[in-house]
Amino acid sequence: MDTLLLSILDEAAQEARPLISHYKVGAVGLGGSGAVYIGCNLEMPGNALNQSVHGEQFLLANLLLHQERVLQSLAISAAPCGHCRQFCSELACADRVRFVFGYRGHDEPEVFSLAQLLPARFGPLDLLEDPSAPLLLEQQQHSLAWTADAQEVLQQRGNDQGFQRAAEAALQAARASYSPYTHCPSGVAFVTSSGGVAAGGYIESAAHNPGLPPLQAAVVGGIVGGCLPSYDQILEVVLVEVQAAPVQHARITTAVAASFSEDVRVTVLHVTRQ
């Protein structure tokens, strides 16, 4: 199986969009179901580099989209950066994941554990108030309901089917998002010029910085779903987040979306916890 995963790396890297560095990264993972998933790096021109998506982050977001609960193996062409090692620490199965490296010129792949790649790491159990809380890839279910203002917007645009689909998809993404540290669930969905809708949920990290914003998670969904050949195909972005939450994504989502197209529309719909 390791050889198979490594053989797909070049194909995975061809999906990358490194529009700033021009350096393509591919990642391939084996899910608990036995299905194989890909990841690649994405960069957002006109934005800070911390708005990029690393290949391993893409892969884990892809697993979430397909409701995989376990990552068995992760194949990459070289050692993962510290950012991705920390991000992988969020996995409930982190200690069981096999990291497979296929160095050029080596006859046999090398296999490592996360403990070997990131010894004495800072992780979820160092920060969580409830050590039994579900971790990344485990089922999350935030009970959220539209505010009165959001319901009014939804009613006003009742005949806009694309918007209605995006709003519902963003709500479901927020309900399934991973925010155990701030308790600020959020989700994004967008509508493309072809009528496609893709969504993704916020993913936090105990170290905070290697998290994945909901817009980028939705972009992963669009690429995986085949409805986002380029960023400028996005017509409207719908962000769902908790009203007056300590962590909010409205400003940065609006800024990044504006870099995709001057005409992109961003709609923020607030929810409350039930």
TrEMBL record:
Superkingdom, taxonomy of origin: Eukaryota
Entries under InterPro entries matching the protein: CMP_dCMP_dom (IPR002125), Cyd/dCyd_deaminase_Zn-bd (IPR013171), Cyt/Deoxycyt_deaminase (IPR050202), Cytidine_deaminase-like (IPR016193)
PROSITE patterns per record: CYT_DCMP_DEAMINASES_2 (PS51747)
Domain CMP/dCMP-type deaminase stretches: 1-125, 161-274
Subunit organization: Homodimer.
Family in the record: Belongs to the cytidine and deoxycytidylate deaminase family.
UniProt-listed PANTHER family: CYTIDINE DEAMINASE (PTHR11644:SF2)
Protein name: CMP/dCMP-type deaminase domain-containing protein
Source species of the chain: Tetradesmus obliquus (Green alga)
Lineage of producing organism: Eukaryota, Viridiplantae, Chlorophyta, core chlorophytes, Chlorophyceae
